[in-house]
Amino acid sequence: MKSVDDLKDDFPAKKASPRKAQVDRRRESMESILDHAEALFAESGFNGVTINDVARSASVDTGLIRYYFGDKSNLFEAVVDRRSGVANEARLKALNEYRRTAGASFSLEGVIRAFTAPAFDLMLNDEGYRNYGMIIGYVNATHADLRRLMSKNFDHVSEVLIEDMKRLLPDANLEDLYWGYHFLTGAFTFSLAQTGRIDSLSGDMCKSEDLQAISERLPITLAAGIRAMCDERAAARKRAATSTNT
């Protein structure tokens, strides 16, 4: 009786068709270009990178990059889009899971942790996502043409967070909630950028690349600050109303 290995010899695996091989090569080439572009954009920002820089890093001709992606803006957008789906899926899953399981312990700190922790987890375990996080931090702080990518990729997740904030802070007015969200995402994306600023200020006691330390502290800080801001604003409105009525 023939062994399994003998049978494999009798029926060798089919070779990939020329068309499939071509598609695979194209996909691998595009992924390589995106990997190199991502690393360069993370290090130098949008304005600090040229198509020629990416071509040199990826060891390809500039014409191939333009063929696949067009101009630098389209290449940058492709870099951002590539990982946004996975990042958003992880964040939505964490928010929904927290909402489902928290019960009476449902809190602003818990919601913020569910919103922020998935990004830090991805960055801790994958150099590509670490570069991606730095790019998102850069995009959030730059001009409107690039900030459009934030709305395109992240508004639907942000709306889930804002709805939870409304539920947890029922006495806050909408304006204060949006300011709270603004401060939250500002601190969050600045942390993703890993600027090194805290390194020099703290004499290297703290490291901007210490994502675990940031992930542990950020939700506590933001929840306390947003709650205090909303409570104080609500109290101020009550004082103003009382003063008007007397």
TrEMBL record:
Region (Disordered): 1-27
PANTHER family: HTH-TYPE TRANSCRIPTIONAL REGULATOR RUTR, TRANSCRIPTIONAL REGULATORY PROTEIN
Domain (HTH tetR-type) ranges: 27-87
Keywords linked to the UniProt accession: DNA-binding
Superkingdom, taxonomy of origin: Bacteria
Record flagged with keyword DNA-binding: yes
Sequence ranges of Basic and acidic residues compositional bias: 1-13
Species name: Caulobacter mirabilis
Entry keyword Cell division: no
PROSITE patterns: HTH_TETR_2 (PS50977)
Pfam family, one: TetR_C_30
DNA-binding region residue numbers: 50-69
Record protein name field: TetR family transcriptional regulator
One term of GO molecular function: DNA-binding transcription factor activity
InterPro entries cross-referenced by the UniProt entry: Homeodomain-like_sf, HTH-type_TetR-like_transc_reg, HTH_TetR, PsrA_TetR_C, Tet_transcr_reg_TetR-rel_C_sf
Listed Gene3D superfamilies: Tetracycline Repressor, domain 2
